[in-house]
Amino acid sequence: MANPNTLGTGGLAYDKSKRAWPNEANVFIALILIILTFEALGQLLPYMKGQSMLFDFNMNRDGTILNVARIQIIILQVSIIGIIALGVTQVIISGGIDLSSGPLVGAAAMIVMSFGQTELVNGQLNPKAVFGDWAFDLPVIVPIFVGLAFGALIGCINGSFIAYTRIPPFIATLGMFLICRGIAQWWTKGQPVSFPTDSFAAIGSGMMPVVWFALLAILLFLIMKFTVYGKHTYAIGSNEDAARMSGINVKRHKVLVYMIASMLAAFAAVILSSKNLTAQAGMGQFYELYAIAMAVIGGVSLTGGRGSIVGTVLGAMVFGVIQSGFTFIKLDAYYQLIAMGSIIIGAVVLDQYRQQRATAG
Amino acid sequence: MANPNTLGTGGLAYDKSKRAWPNEANVFIALILIILTFEALGQLLPYMKGQSMLFDFNMNRDGTILNVARIQIIILQVSIIGIIALGVTQVIISGGIDLSSGPLVGAAAMIVMSFGQTELVNGQLNPKAVFGDWAFDLPVIVPIFVGLAFGALIGCINGSFIAYTRIPPFIATLGMFLICRGIAQWWTKGQPVSFPTDSFAAIGSGMMPVVWFALLAILLFLIMKFTVYGKHTYAIGSNEDAARMSGINVKRHKVLVYMIASMLAAFAAVILSSKNLTAQAGMGQFYELYAIAMAVIGGVSLTGGRGSIVGTVLGAMVFGVIQSGFTFIKLDAYYQLIAMGSIIIGAVVLDQYRQQRATAG
Amino acid sequence: MGDQFILETRDLTKHYGGVHALEGANFQLRAGEHVAIMGDNGAGKSTFVRQITGVEQRTRGDIIFDGKPVHFSGPLDAREEGIETVFQTLALADDLDVPDNLFLGREITKWNFLGPFRLLDYRAMREATIEGLERTAVKIPNIRNAIRNMSGGQRQCVAIARTATFHSKLTIMDEPTAALGVQETAQVENIVRTLKEAGEPLILVSHNMRQVFDLVDRVVVFRRGRICANLDIKNERISGEDVVAYITGAKTQEGYEDAA
Amino acid sequence: MGDQFILETRDLTKHYGGVHALEGANFQLRAGEHVAIMGDNGAGKSTFVRQITGVEQRTRGDIIFDGKPVHFSGPLDAREEGIETVFQTLALADDLDVPDNLFLGREITKWNFLGPFRLLDYRAMREATIEGLERTAVKIPNIRNAIRNMSGGQRQCVAIARTATFHSKLTIMDEPTAALGVQETAQVENIVRTLKEAGEPLILVSHNMRQVFDLVDRVVVFRRGRICANLDIKNERISGEDVVAYITGAKTQEGYEDAA
Amino acid sequence: EDIGVSMALFDDNFLTVLRNGIEASAAEMDGVEVQIEDAQNDLARQLDQINNFIASGVDAIIVNPVDTSATQAMTAAAEAAGVPLVFVNRQPINVDSMPDNQAFVASNEIESGTLETFEICKMLRAQGLGGGARAYVMMGELSNQAAVQRTKDIQDVLGMDMCSFIEVIDQQTANWSREQANSLMTNWLSSGEVFHAVIANNDEMALGAIQAIKAAGIDMADVVVGGVDATQDALSSMQAGELDVTVFQNAAGQGSGALNAAIALANGEEVEQKVYIPFELVTPANIEGYLTQN
Ligand SMILES: Nc1ncnc2c1ncn2[C@@H]1O[C@H](COP(=O)(O)OP(=O)(O)OP(=O)(O)O)[C@@H](O)[C@H]1O
Ligand SMILES: Nc1ncnc2c1ncn2[C@@H]1O[C@H](COP(=O)(O)OP(=O)(O)OP(=O)(O)O)[C@@H](O)[C@H]1O
Ligand SMILES: [Mg+2]
Ligand SMILES: [Mg+2]
């Protein structure tokens, strides 16, 4: 945009300074508002005795003015669903939806952990062993590879049905939702799988989930913004017929979109089971809904074609802040659900209101 | 259509005999195929010893050739979710979605049952009493009215947010999903509410749920097909801008659509808690997904504007047959989920395939 | 200004973000008058129409319709006040059939005491539809097919028939004949002439010079979001070339110098 | 038939359910020839275009392109074979901006070894876009606005610029100037003349008699889903009225009696 | 003291009684604040809740684990922060390697299914069906450990010589729910098979089965139905002569016991690290003692 002429071919007067804000700005404002609300509640609620959520003015814990521990847990607790949300974001941008990601996490965790078990626990044979001897103490690459391959397979099935039989993504992935739940329960007939090797346990220990989330978010951001893949994803979501008529191979592209989403979900399962040192069939329940909600709060449009990875990351942060904030102000669990629902609605209302103002401007 | 001239103003040759089938026909074919599959499995699987699912050739049970008991349970077990699906159908046709119906069932059941309790249980004071004396043995109209009013309120909130702030229906009703779960858990702090009056228990006893489902299905069918309300619902789902520019009061209409959906879900909660003689906060889990799936299997398009009540009723039947069929062939629970997912996908693939054939014809 | 204005706008302005799509438009329409709006692509003609009909909310300015200042909150308001519009985007519901679209928002009904649940009179609407379509000469083999499956011209004729079927205080047509064939265009022009005879005022947006000279009394030219000329083609000697000169900016009329 | 045909269809037929939208079309296009297709609204012109470009699958018949029978499974195939099309529905992605739409499906890229993840060269595409748009004379204040916010004519110009920017063996334009203003129409007609000079063949669907007589060598008339006339307007004495007579069915050419 | 509590699931009748037990005893004590969170059966969420508690500086944490095999990570998190931790109701997998400031108050899930099934076995034998009886088994949600364990208990008991006369006709899940159990039972009934007992993983499903059997017009005296939990509804049904067996677990006692242990640990006191609360069998014979317990 160095040369102002490159912006257009003339016509109407155009006032660059009044350009609409990026949508992400609205999400960011919502995030700040929510943080400030919790800070204010910490000051105002009598039983909180003037505590602060994100700041630590006494600096007694680790010598910084920020309450680093809380900031870490805020990001940590949304990292895993956040990774799923990255994949879901591109699915939604492509005009689809993925309901299968939650159960996929459960199924992938069970499978992955079966290949990541250690032989000896407290000197005895692993009591939760799924396979025989050969599957103990495998190099960490094996479970990761198995997980990604499983994710790729599920995504490929999802995508192929959606692309080639043209059934609605909602139905294809709802079917896969049930299938993955079935697989997860069938794998060990409901028994949890535990006791990973040390190297497997290292993948998701401590702040590693945050690192993975950050890396993958940057990668997806670059892909969606600067590559042909990203552009075609937006184009298909915006107008599938137009994309097809313009000569994009819509079917092949959709398969790829769902494969990437499922591989991200499977990788989230690797981190999740590593973090928890166990895999359980019920893992990942409601993750699909939360991942979708993060994306939508971040400004991704469910009709496709609009949204961004930056928005989804901000949407994930909103979730993290809400969850930690509730514990901070000691809100009863009954009211937590009600408040969470209200905040989700409120955040999107704000976004919508600002967007309308922007176009009405 | 008595006068053939009324069909058009000429132009191309038009061959009436080749008109495309109604979409409902595809769903009906899918239903028949699924029934036949289970019948065949009953004949072929060795451990089934040649049993039949729907027929009773010995006529030893009630003297008819049909296995009436099984046909009844097939319809009975989907009646309650079916009632929700009727409301969801019109929401989807209007271009929206309702995720809050499942948790709404839980919340409404808790509230309704609190007004439908009897005073004496086995000669002792009701051990689960929610309110005091005044709320015992109220006439049955009170809990029904309270339930419908609660449903109307929730639907009005859903609809108002969607219509007036223009947030996506997915988010508005996902927020309401959480809020309703919160309300359900908060109402009695998780304690179940039990021991209804006899008149309340009569609403959902025996085959009454089927009667309600049939009555409401006919009512909704007439409304969607023959009234202005129905036409405007289709118009809004088909092209909201066009509907608005044509002078439909889109906002008011949407509020009405969501109110009707939530009132149907609340009425389903009345029947459900009456049938089970109890209300629990977790009731209705996944009902929203199943209701949506019934509608979509029945040919309702998630992009709005297309579908019918007849289709949804057939979609509900597909569910009923699948569930009974699994029990009939004694399929293991692990495989049930996998098979259910596959059948849902398969049914819609078939529908889609026939639709494409029809237009390609 | 002794005349009776049916529509008047003062300083009507609309900005989209940084795009100044309409800037200070002062426009008058007398009772019974037919006016054409011309201008380049993107000059702001449709934007002007959208402000008048309440589809969008204006940035500033006044609209006086039928003697009263109006603030339509939506197209429903505008229609209730008697403004019928054929939008450039047509505003048809793709999944509905032709009669449904023609009567969208004002269905013929029975049992009106049922409120929103009053019954539709399908037969009456079907018959009225055939009649309305015949006035546009369009050929549609089966009016019960969804609009989605209609050709571009068929869709446009449905939108025009919708407007022509109902009486109004003001009719606005935004490029109504763009997709129409030779015969259909002629018919639509006949409809416009009928309106003229009935004394109903009309705003016609069109790029077709012949059509404009055949049909209307006056041409208003838009350029870069502003009105740049107001040409009384019935009484003054104005040629097509003159109008093109105003459109391209080769000429600017007195009194509109700021539009240059 | 000694000529070299770039495109030939034999008995090309398309039924939608009961609607016989296209019936036994035999059509030939010679190398370098410009042919117009005319006909009533709903006569089957766009249907014909959709069959040739693989957007839909034909009911029966053969298409021979560049000497070989072809069965395009989608528009991508057709484009790869060298057919560039401006569809009547324009086929633009509403949420993307102008350069994105112009290069949709054939982006200018860097680092192509990355396969689907190769990088976009935004700057090059932006510059090429401005150039392409200038050929159509359309004015767009900010090409980075979403297509959703463009006027009808601006959208159409983007679709035309897209086709005109790339070389092809055959160009098809379905009512390309329907929404265009006077200047823009003139420019697009210039683009067509340039194609003629370059010897690239063209099929032009249009309702505009003047345009057709100005630009093309031959007119094929569709009526009720069938071809009813094939008029060599450059060499025979054929007037606009004659063509209208064929369109309306007042006349039928020899050899096409079954279309009556 | 501030005590953080993470419950596996709020929607569970039994755990609700336990939770209310914690709340009730906290209300009686001075200066004890409890903050109860719902892990919604998601063990990752539970681990996050524990981290959140630690970050907000609670004095002790009580956990009702979603999954007893996931307790290792929880123990590690609390240990690293030096916050005392008490597991309640479900026995953690790492029970033998817990640090000193951690404890558990729990029951052994193996008992519940065993007690239930063995009693049903005895009742069937007493009815003279020792030559062969047929039973349906209703399982809870298969991703839930209690369901898996109780179902295994049933199989183990039926594998014993004494009870092997009982043949399982079919074994399906009704996901803990009365509604689904009602449908499942009606489906079974529509096949017309002869059966003598229904063994359910919890009381809710047993009650659903009873409603379906009653609706089919079968005399409840001819069928033995068993559940687990001893809920109010179940006891009332037992009083009405419908439900035959259930198993009681002292939820409120576990709740207050866990709270006491947590407070003691927070104050640096020594506590007993392992407290087992046994399951108790409830039949019409001894029902009077349990009517006001849960
Ligand atoms: N998918 C479809 N299903 C049913 N009928 C269709 C479908 N597509 C087109 N038609 C019908 O086929 C006929 C021909 O349509 P087509 O779009 O080819 O007309 P056209 O000649 O391009 O007209 P126009 O000049 O208005 O663009 C029309 O009557 C239309 O209603
Ligand atoms: N929602 C919007 N956001 C931003 N810009 C817009 C929006 N709507 C219209 N514009 C811009 O406003 C200008 C005027 O558009 P308008 O549709 O009024 O043109 P028009 O005169 O009707 O042109 P045409 O003859 O092509 O229909 C165009 O440059 C267009 O890009
Ligand atoms: Mg316009
Ligand atoms: Mg056409």
Automatic annotation (TrEMBL), chains A, B:
Membrane-spanning residues where?
27-47, 68-93, 140-163, 170-188, 200-223, 255-273, 285-302, 309-327, 333-350
The protein's predominant localisation is: membrane
Q: Per its UniProt entry, which superkingdom is the organism in? A: Bacteria
* Example of a GO cellular component annotation carried by this entry: plasma membrane
Return the protein name. Answer: Monosaccharide ABC transporter membrane protein (CUT2 family)
Q: Where in the cell is it found?
A: Cell membrane
- Keyword Transmembrane helix: yes or no? yes
Q: Which GO MF terms are attached to this record?
A: transmembrane transporter activity
Source organism of this protein record: Litoreibacter meonggei
TrEMBL record, chains C, D:
Write one Pfam family the protein is assigned to. Answer: ABC_tran
* SUPFAM superfamilies the record matches: P-loop containing nucleoside triphosphate hydrolases (SSF52540)
InterPro entries (UniProt xref): AAA+_ATPase, ABC_carbohydrate_import_ATPase, ABC_transporter-like_ATP-bd, ABC_transporter-like_CS, P-loop_NTPase
Which GO terms label this protein's molecular function in UniProt? ATP binding; ATP hydrolysis activity
Residue stretches making up the ABC transporter domain: 7-249
**According to the lineage, what is the superkingdom?**
Bacteria
| Keyword Nucleotide-binding tagged | yes
Q: Which UniProt keywords apply?
A: ATP-binding, Nucleotide-binding
Signal sequence annotation: none
Q: Read off the Gene3D superfamilies from this record.
A: P-loop containing nucleotide triphosphate hydrolases
Question: What protein name is recorded for this chain?
Answer: Monosaccharide ABC transporter ATP-binding protein (CUT2 family)
Which species is listed as the source? Answer: Litoreibacter meonggei
List the top taxonomic levels of the source.
Bacteria, Pseudomonadati, Pseudomonadota, Alphaproteobacteria, Rhodobacterales
